[in-house]
Amino acid sequence: MDVTDIIQTASLPEVIDKAAAYLMHHGWGTLLEFVRPGSRLYVWALVGALALAAISFRLYHSEGEGESEGEGKGKRGTIRRFLAYCFPRAVWTHPSAVLDYKLFVMNRLLGPLIPFSTIGLTAALSYWLAKFLNTHLGVFPHSLPWNAWSIGAVSIVYIVVGDFLEFVLHWAQHRIPVLWRLHRVHHSAETLTPITLFRVHPFLDVFFNKPMRAGMLGVLGGVLFYLFFQGNGRPVVLVPLVTFQMLFNVLGSNLRHSHIWLSYGWVASHVFVSPAMHQIHHSIAPEHLYKNLGVSFSVWDWLFGTLYIPRQREQLTFGLEAGASQAHPSLWKVYTEPFI
Ligand SMILES: [Zn+2]
Ligand SMILES: [Zn+2]
After folding, report:
1. What is the pTM of this model?
2. Which of 79, 158, 217, 321 has its CA 20 to 30 A from that of 13?
3. In Å, what is the CA distance from 53 to each residue of 46, 244, 254?
4. How far is residue 44's CA from residue 52's CA, in Å, rounded to a whole number?
5. Is 143 helix (H, G, I), strand (E, B) or coil?
6. pLDDT score for 234
7. How much distance in Å is there from the Cα of 40 to the middle of ligand 1?
8. DSSP state of 109
9. Ligand 1 centre distance from Cα of residue 293 (Å)
10. 333 pLDDT higher than 80
């Protein structure tokens, strides 16, 4: 297929679908996600996901289960069974997963059209607010000295409060009808793969998530800079933040959107969101509705009564509701359905 083939296509929905397939074929821009350290698809994050998948394989995939003709026994057979466990065709080539891939490419393509960067806006707002407070209120008398300890302590506050703000944003997407219409796109996925993370309506990101995130984190950063560093923020404060993000990514964030079950156990699940807990968030079972809205820390769910910790491995069905037909069978529907 080439560009003329796309242009000659008659209907707009088909053009969008074909354009996405064309871009996927040529892989434009999408490869960047694999070399960007903050990305969940960064190569080490994928290696980490495979290592955790191996733990899940040992725990939940008993010897011989799923063994079929030709897989054989011994080391080779185990590797084959592990790969079959991680990459079942029924999941990775499911129409829902294929739509995720198309949306991933399309949203990346639309990315440069978004006229601001969240990190840039957050940093600018933080610096401006810290300077403003310094000028109008005077230097805060109990400021911390600028050293590794103080940066570490302030970073922990930033990470914890920042994660709470993410929880609030996610809660709003489920509870405010106009936001839910857009967030539904993420929840209509019937199979989960790490690419499902990118299954989002672009309007939700452009008009809600990014500006809200930049605004709230920008104000938080500004207040912290004022209170702790005499109003002087320096880019070095991003180091612990990015390290935490990378650690989070390596420690299984990719398994959240997958069929691979991994729980952190009853105690740790009160603090951290395990992959199994986010899979429960995608489940259509009534008892799982509105549960596990947290991103990194589950304490917010615990505090606000939306925590659901599985006692054992559960069989889950993902999607919007039982028996309902797929609300987003094509890219065209993804983009238009929330407005119909
Ligand atoms: Zn959700
Ligand atoms: Zn999700």
Report:
1. 0.83
2. 321
3. 10, 21, 10
4. 12
5. coil
6. 66
7. 18
8. H
9. 6
10. yes
DSSP annotation string for 35-62 = T-TTSTTSHHHHHHHHHHHHHHHHHHS-
- Average pLDDT over the chain reads 83
Structure tokens at 14: 């088909």
Contact 312, 156 (CB under 8 A): no
Residue 94, both tokens: 């499911």
User: What is the distance between the alpha carbons of residues 80 and 55, in angstroms, rounded to a whole number?
Assistant: 16
Report how far apart the first and last C-alpha atoms of the chain are (Å, whole number). Answer: 32
Centroid of ligand 2 to alpha carbon of 9 (angstroms): 33
pLDDT one-digit tens code per residue, 209-236? 888 988 998 899 888 888 887 777 666 6
Gap from CA of 279 to ligand 1 centroid (Å) = 10
Q: Which residue has the tokens 């996927």?
A: 24
Name 83's Cβ contacts closer than 8 Å, sequence gap at least 6: none
How far apart are the C-alpha atoms of 126 and 225, rounded to whole Å?
8
Q: For residue 100, give both structure tokens.
A: 């995720």
Query: Count of residues for the chain?
Result: 340
Beta carbons within 8 Å of 264's beta carbon, 6+ residues apart: 272, 274
How far does the centroid of ligand 2 lie from the alpha carbon of residue 186, in Å?
6
Rounded to the nearest angstrom, the distance between the alpha carbon of 278 and the centre of ligand 2 is 6
